[in-house]
Design goal:
single chain; 2 domains; three-stranded antiparallel β-sheet
Length: 158
């Protein structure tokens, strides 16, 4: 459905306003879709993001700060997310052997099993996009979004 119909707007100030609102609307739409699918696994999208980051470590520990730097939602409360994941036995937290002020976070076997079982959710999202646009369109969109973020260096990082 066109953005005009979704937002019930007759017109936009210009194409830049339409593109801006379309990016925000589509990102929210995609995240809501992901959230609905993750409910079945009893995890949120930020928790899903943390679990995927930790899986990429292949068993090596990571600090909460390093996790936050890699998160999609960098304003998320990583400490609270980690507490929830510990309660669910999906990650462990231990004092770092290198720096006592740091906490090492690791994925548990249960966390690895859960994140592996959610792989189809991400694949389905990519396939949905692939059904709507070509690979060259996807590359262009990615490049354009990179350009937009490059206009405001440091934006989104605290």
């Amino acid at each position: 459905m066109r953005l005009e119909d979704e937002l019930k707007m007759q017109q936009f100030t210009d194409n830049f306003q339409r593109a801006y609102l379309n990016i925000i609307f589509t990102a929210s739409w995609m995240e809501t879709n992901m959230q609905q699918k993750l409910k079945h696994y009893n995890i949120t999208t930020p928790q899903f993001n943390v679990l995927r980051i930790l899986r990429g470590q292949k068993g090596k520990p990571m600090s909460a700060f390093a996790i936050q730097e890699r998160m999609i939602h960098r304003t998320s409360n990583v400490t609270r997310i980690l507490e929830k994941l510990v309660e669910k036995n999906l990650v462990t937290r231990e004092n770092s052997t290198v720096n006592r002020r740091m906490i090492d976070v690791r994925l548990t076997d249960e966390g690895l099993d859960l994140i592996n079982s959610t792989d189809t959710i991400a694949v389905e999202a990519y396939e949905q996009m692939a059904g709507a646009i070509s690979e060259s369109d996807a590359r262009l969109i990615g490049d354009w979004l990179d350009k937009i973020r490059e206009q405001t260096p440091g934006c989104g990082k605290d």
